[in-house]
Design goal:
CATH class: Alpha Beta
Number of helices: 6
Shape: globular
Strand order of the largest sheet: 1-2-4-3-5-6-7-8
Number of strands: 8
Number of domains: 1
CATH architecture: 3-Layer(aba) Sandwich
CATH topology: Rossmann fold
CATH superfamily: Alpha/Beta hydrolase fold, catalytic domain
Strand content: 25-35%
Radius of gyration: 16 Å
Order of helices and strands: EEEHEHHEHEEHEH
Helix content: 25-40%
Length: 224
């Protein structure tokens, strides 16, 4: 359904994946990758958003690199240039708003590493991002400035997550609420990190994934 694209980002170019609904227009949503990179799972998420009526863009924050093994993914995640990511975010928002995304604000959705980046994006472009959905977000070097955040934040986390534990999720929610941000966090019982990724049969949970997806669509409809 979608296509590979490139967009301007502070004098450079950034690759990405863009998916549009049949109408060609609709609310916009940014989709931020897991630590693997811009892989088929993230493209499929964009396609699903397009089927739901959204114009979805996944910026490739690794600029073409992908990982197939956890060690390699961890190295790519730790090598992420956060300053460059901020430039990519601003360029992605501008590009998305020029590609059929209606309104003046877009949603920001991310998974794993991308969950933290979805929050970060909302702090980088607070006037252009109207809602965030953070799926089990974690990145040790990404620290969103919550004082700049304006968008309400939906959270989806996993009880058995050894990376982003329920305690970490609750601490994040408390910090957001302390900053005056509207939140709605849910910790799914009995599931593990990456429960939304259908390409990970070792952790995928269809029931939790469906609930998290429906909550995300409802959140975007409400705020974007």
């Amino acid at each position: 359904m979608g296509q590979s694209v490139s967009f301007q980002s502070n004098g450079g170019t950034t690759p990405g994946y863009l998916a549009k609904p049949a109408s060609g227009t609709g609310p916009g949503v940014l989709v931020f990758q897991e630590w693997w990179g811009l892989v088929d799972h993230i493209r499929h998420v964009c396609d699903r958003f397009a089927e739901a009526g959204y114009v979805a863009l996944a910026p490739d924050l690794y600029h073409g690199k992908v990982a197939t093994e956890p060690d390699e993914a961890g190295k790519l995640m730790m090598a992420l240039n956060v300053d460059q990511a901020a430039k990519d975010v601003r360029g992605a928002v501008t590009y998305l708003l020029g590609q059929g995304a209606t309104g003046s604000k877009v949603g920001s959705v991310g998974f794993c590493m991308g969950g933290s980046l979805a929050l970060y994006a909302a702090s980088v472009s607070p006037d252009q991002i109207g809602a965030v959905a953070d799926f089990y977000g974690a990145h040790p070097n990404v620290h969103p400035d919550l004082s700049r955040l304006k968008a309400p934040v939906l959270g989806g986390f996993a009880e058995k997550d050894g990376y982003v534990t329920p305690e970490v999720a609750r601490q994040l929610e408390a910090s957001l609420k302390g900053a005056g941000i509207t939140t709605d966090f849910k910790i799914y019982p009995g599931v593990d990190h990456a429960f939304f990724n259908e390409e990970r049969p070792d952790v995928y949970n269809a029931e939790a994934a469906a609930d998290a997806w429906n909550r995300t669509i409802a959140w975007l409809k409400k705020y974007v």
